[in-house]
Amino acid sequence: MTSIKAAFLAITLLIAGAARAEGLSPEQREEVVGILRDALKQDPTILRDALAALEAADQREREGATRSAIAAHAAALFRDPADPVKGNPQGAVTVVEFFDARCGYCKQLQPAMEQLLRRQRDVRLVLKDLPILGPSSVLASRALLAAQRQGKYAELYDALLKLREDPTETVLRREAERAGLDWARLRRDMDDTGIQARIAGNLRLAQALRIEGTPALVIGETLVPGAVDLATLERLVAEARRGG
Questions:
Q1: Alpha carbon 100 to its chain's center
Q2: Could you tell me the CA-to-CA distances from 134 to 100, 211, 213, 214, 233 in Å, in that order?
């Protein structure tokens, strides 16, 4: 990097830091703008490097905030005994998945996640119902959490994630009965206030982690937004295993 580029980057980062704190005085701003203008005249390409440096700094700040949030909510994320679990219940590595049963990307992720659980026998998958796509999503989450009371959460989860139609009550009854659930009991439990409280708790936890959509994975200290492939899942699990 040329000395001009280095100076420009240093000044740009200084401005960014000052803007986050108490800002520059008008005189200081005028002086800095003059320096930046002269530097850009000599080498316009340094603006690209400066923007890349700022983006990298912002990314590091976001990742640090995410790690702090995960650490602060570790018990609710990884160790809530009420959460449904797939894979190895005593697994050395825990993957937390926030999902919506109607989410197309969650459905896209499911085959890769199933492969991960078959290939990595020490992985524990914690499922967090996060119904954010409307009333049908809420209905599906209530059915899933009610199915857990009959020991059939995983069976209904697998059915709903493969579903290619809206999970109306009629569809839910059909899939529940196929999975061996007592529909009358399931329908009563779906209206239990405790189930609504669990969904609300998942929503609060997602907000605390600044999760903006589904699926969202927490693996070790890493928050992964969106669906990823098997290779990425295995890499993240390996990193979490080394870090643990």
A1: 12
A2: 10, 17, 13, 13, 28
Query: Which pTM value belongs to this model?
Result: 0.76
DSSP, res 22? T
- Model confidence at 21, pLDDT cuts 50, 70, 90, reads very low
Summarize pLDDT for 187-241 with one digit per residue, the tens: 999 999 999 999 999 999 999 999 999 999 999 999 999 999 999 999 999 999 9
Provide the percentage of residues in the chain whose pLDDT is more than 70: 81
Place of tokens 């280095």: 6
Q: Which CATH number fits domain 75-243: 3.40.640.10, 3.40.140.10, 3.40.30.10, 3.40.50.720?
A: 3.40.30.10
Sign of CA pseudo-dihedral 236, 241, 243, 244: positive
Distances in whole angstroms, Cα of residue 12 to Cα of each of 29, 53, 124, 153: 12, 9, 45, 53
Per-residue DSSP letters for 187-209?
HHHHT-HHHHHHHHHHHHHHHHT
**98/105 Cα distance (integer angstroms):** 12
Question: CATH 3.40.30.10 spans which residues of the chain?
Answer: 75-243
